[in-house]
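Re: Re: token formats

Sure, here are both.
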Amino acid sequence: MSTESLQPKVIIHGGAGLSLKDKGGKDAVRAALQGIVQQVYDSLRAGSSAVDAVIKGCQLLEDEPRFNAGTGSVLQSDGQIRMSASLMDGEKQSLSGVINVSRVKNPIFLAKELQVQTDRILSDYGAAELARELAIPPYDPLTDLRLLEWQQERKENFSKKMATVIAEERRGTIGVVVLDQQGRIAVGTSTGGKGLERIGRVSDSAMPAGNYANNLAGVSCTGIGEDIIDECFAARVVIRVTDGLSLAEAMEKSIKESQSRNRDLAAIALDHQGNIVWGKTCEVVLAAYHNGQTIGDSLDAATNDYIGVITG
């Protein structure tokens, strides 16, 4: 497919799990996801680069309190919010990100800045210093729902009986993968963590395991971070595409391997031909996409429908 004929494509996710109850139900999630997909697609149609479109999509998802990233992030065991995010430019095959950053509104903006730095992945102290250097104003991403969730868990000595789906099941991430009109791919992933975790725990979201792209494909993951890390899932799918498998074949093979090891994860992906694919080992993945003609989503996919393919 020549770059002159390329329609931009976009797929996003707002996490994965067993239900949508904690996010206001299917209709509310669908409206939120599809509204953001439309905005990202419109920016691509207006000439936005893949990287800029990913940043826009991640920012919109981080600003939506129903998803576990940015505003609305879950609290760790000590009652603090620590977020991680990364950005990967597939054209340059360049990954940048921040790990366990606090008191910023949009961690993806720090990942963007780090794309042009010599040191491209920073942990908590370094990320905080970068935010100060950039004069990013302090911001508290805490919501009343997340505080109540943590307080209930504290009363129950963190037995997780009272936790909502995100904290209890330890899933919750946002991600964006785009193909722009020039055929460039970029991907971004952001998370508030799994909730109630040990202080200092590192998620997959700022690693190639959870967020990876090259000039052929891009993948963003969600689910249990440790499972995604153990599979090195995002990089595995992209490498398989690079080695000659189609994106659908690479996703299906990787998902089947993950199922055989009882992993709990999901992923969204795009390739340079405009094919859109999602996969899951869990019951629900909160994904929505624009294929150049229409908007669709994965919210009605059956539990055993573990792969979705929208050809370019």
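Second one below.
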Amino acid sequence: MWMICKKEWQQFFSSLTGYLALVVFLLLNGLFLFVFPDSNLLDFGYASLNGYFNLAPWLLLFLIPTITMRSFADEYKSGSFEILKTLPITPTSIVAGKYLGSLLIVLTALLPSVVYAFSMQSLSVTGGIDVGGTIGSYIGLCFLAAVFTAIGITASSFTNNTVVAFIGGAFNCFLLYTGFSAISKLPFFNAGFDYYMELLGIQYHYRSISRGVIDSRDLIYFLGIILVFLFITRKNLLKR
């Protein structure tokens, strides 16, 4: 498993595409948070990273499928998956290695954003940022990244075309993140059903953890979604 994880890491950073994806992600973060007027954190008048945690999921919708689209699609296309099957590695280890390798890359991309928290804290005249809420938001963001990574890995396991894997990963991440919240607002789901429909979506649980309250129900939801998608990925490998 760790061999696959290491291979995934090295493969991503062995090409210019990997570095370019991370640079674009960090550049967009910087522009939205400190340059563009409508989302500039310095214009809020108080120390808060809420703007970043509202923006980050939408940027991850594109970053993570870019990272995961080659995970299995390239293996199928190049024929190296046939070699991989001959190694004494179980399908579960292959999936876990690919997943952990991609997740490590995503968390590496999120790590520089910790600088934003220290910057806002140092620039604050009084009070500072809400440390508890910020830590909770980062935990929620890591779980969100973990779910998106599992979805992207699954999308890549269905095809040998990296573009199709990217589109499939981004679409499914978008659908599961905001789709249920949008559907819950339909008049058909009135009288309390809108709440249960919204519970099925990722956005509800992400916002719940972002308030600084670590609820076991939210953690179980995220872990359940991750395991479901990794199970689907494993089934796809067994079919091949």
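The chain has twelve helices and no strands. Residues 2-239 form one domain.
- S.
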